[in-house]
Amino acid sequence: MFNDLGRMGKYLGQAARMLVGMPDYDTYVAHMRERHPDQAPMTYEAFFRERQEARYGGGKGRPIRCC
Amino acid sequence: MNHNNSLLRHLPWAVLAIVGACALGVVALRRGEVINALWIVVAAVALYLVAYRYYSLFIANRVMQLDPARATPAVLNNDGLDYVPTNKHILFGHHFAAIAGAGPLVGPVLAAQMGYLPGTLWLIAGVVLAGAVQDFMVLFISTRRNGRSLGELVREEMGQVPGTIALFGAFLIMIIILAVLALIVVKALAASPWGMFTVLATIPIAMLMGVYMRYIRPGRIGEISVVGLVLLLGSIWLGGQVAASPEWAPAFTFTGTQITWMLIGYGAVASVLPVWLLLAPRDYLSTFLKIGTIIALAIGILIVMPDLKMPALTQFVDGSGPVWKGGLFPFLFITIACGAVSGFHALISSGTTPKLLANEAHARYIGYGGMLMESFVAIMAMVAASVIEPGVYFAMNSPPAVVGTDVQAVASTISSWGFAISPEVLESTARDIGETTLLARAGGAPTLAVGIAQILHSVLPGENTMAFWYHFAILFEALFILTAVDAGTRAGRFMLQDLLGNFVPALKRTDSWGANLVGTLGCVALWGWLLYQGVVDPLGGINTLWPLFGISNQMLAGIALMLGTVVLIKMKRQRYAWVTIVPAAWLLVCTTTAGLIKLFDPNPAVGFVALARKYSDALAAGQILAPAKDAEQMQHVIFNAWTNSALTVLFLLVVLSVLFYSIKVGRAALREPARTDRETPFQPIPAA
């Protein structure tokens, strides 16, 4: 049961971060391990900064939110 | 046997459809009786669910032929960053948070001047047949084209010229949106020290969060957002103390013009600050607050079950209403805008969402379902606007030129319309919400805040909490409007640089300080100028800017649906093209009719040209027409009328040229024997 609660907490955390466009770090690390084992994944801090800059500073003229 | 089973499967849906139809019948047909808000909510939710179950499934299976075996851009380009296959419920939240803004909250409030019925009917019918179809369609098209943006899609499928025209249209819309959103903030904060203090307090709070997430405990969004929310609630409390203090209140009391200049300065500075300092943390706050408030409001309505005090239909369906002018057709549809159809969603559905879609089949839930959710928010806004006294509603939203400037005059004018209200009630309501006056607070946000405050304060504990919840609601709206102003100025700057770059290539360089400065200042100047004109306009800017916003937004939706039609024809699925042709045609009819009426109507209260003429003629004859008080204000009115005419003409040209190209490309595609669309080739989902 505590396992379920833990999973639930992780899921809600992911959902809340994704509300503001921050993807899941563990998924990213898993992806890097699997597909690019030769490259070191970014640290969480670097990942966070990179994603924040990409969402808000992007500059493709794409609004992040609607009216 | 099988046949029997499938019939049984439909039975619960048939029951739900009947429930929805009955609830709608109650909403539509009962006259002279007070109706509970729950009827509207039940009707809307039941019909949304039935439409989702059947119509969106039809679109997914027959029209688009979504293929769950087809690999999406997220699967093919998975990089763990931009392209990530995402759980569909998590992506639903992401998409909904991106599409839900101030629009669906404000539109229904303004539409309530005709009574709750016309707006409610259009919110339900519009979203099912047009708005959700548009979002779903664009998401589908973009997903099958590697997550390309709307401008790129139009350029690829329809050609270079319509692509640039659509981009130009999107930029104009962005400018109008920024101006109208900022105007809403000005109207809500003018002469309100409490509101002004809390909104100003968000800046240091957001900066504190930004510094914390950057340097103290990098990337810990959750904990600092909780701290931020607590500080925000604290600032609402402190704002109450400030407003009550004779020393501090004047320091935070500003006129509309002063707030306008502050906002313009804010837009220019905020859009060049590093994103981690202000924009990102405030976006986190506003997003969590927005989702929380929407959930709280839904629960509140279910618990309180308020009665609707606004009549189903008012006498203003004839177009003579004080809040905005114009008849039910086409102006109701223009005014409601986002809650039923929002062209802006086409930019979001072709933005980040298609890059996160784990499976093509999820597009139905996220595209169609997400828009149904937005429409539900609009339904709640309609409820919130209809549960307050109609007299209070009209006192807040009518321009002073129509109803007068003191409570006695306002109360007697509005009572003479049949919405009995006494000056004492107007004063006591203002006191209840902690403001000195509630007159001339057009723009929707304050009205909605009164409605939300009424609902929340009867659910949540505490004495005299109306004022707290009113300012909470104002803060909640101001917060995401300011985020939109900041983010929109950044996005608009890139659009402007892109557009101008076609003529002066040096301006395209986003790494050059000079080009960026030109882009930023150009963008701020454009919306700031419209905003300033709206604020100083003695006729009240919302009156003219909101219809303009509605027309532009619905036109963008028309463009997106025309793109959908062209793509369906190119895919050789023209027998299903009515799915997008019908809503596109309706939007084109609405927007062009509204545009032409706005231009050429002989009534100066409606037609821009007639208004300009009337004031020019009077000025030439040396007269001053009310509500202008001097020649300068007369000039404002004339100038605004001509600006608005020019913008309307531009919108008409944009939409008609896209229509021209759609017909041309569509006809050419019909003659081709095989598919001619630019879909990326099918690739199966790789085995894990």
TrEMBL record, chain A:
InterPro entries registered for this protein in UniProt: Sel_put (IPR007423)
Protein name per its UniProtKB record: YbdD/YjiX family protein
Organism expressing this protein natively: Pseudomonas mangiferae
Phylogenetic lineage: Bacteria, Pseudomonadati, Pseudomonadota, Gammaproteobacteria, Pseudomonadales
UniProtKB/TrEMBL annotation, chain B:
Subcellular location per the Swiss-Prot or TrEMBL entry: Cell membrane
Keywords: Cell membrane, Membrane, Transmembrane, Transmembrane helix, Transport
Assigned GO CC terms: plasma membrane
Spans through the membrane: 12-29, 35-55, 96-116, 122-142, 163-186, 192-212, 224-244, 259-280, 287-308, 328-348, 368-388, 468-492, 513-532, 544-569, 576-597, 641-661
Membrane topology: Multi-pass membrane protein
Source organism superkingdom: Bacteria
Coiled-coil region: none
Residue intervals of the CstA N-terminal domain: 36-594
GO biological process, one term: cellular response to starvation
Pfam families noted in UniProt: CstA
Protein family (similarity comment): Belongs to the peptide transporter carbon starvation (CstA) (TC 2.A.114) family.
Annotated protein name in UniProt: Carbon starvation protein A
Organism per entry: Pseudomonas mangiferae
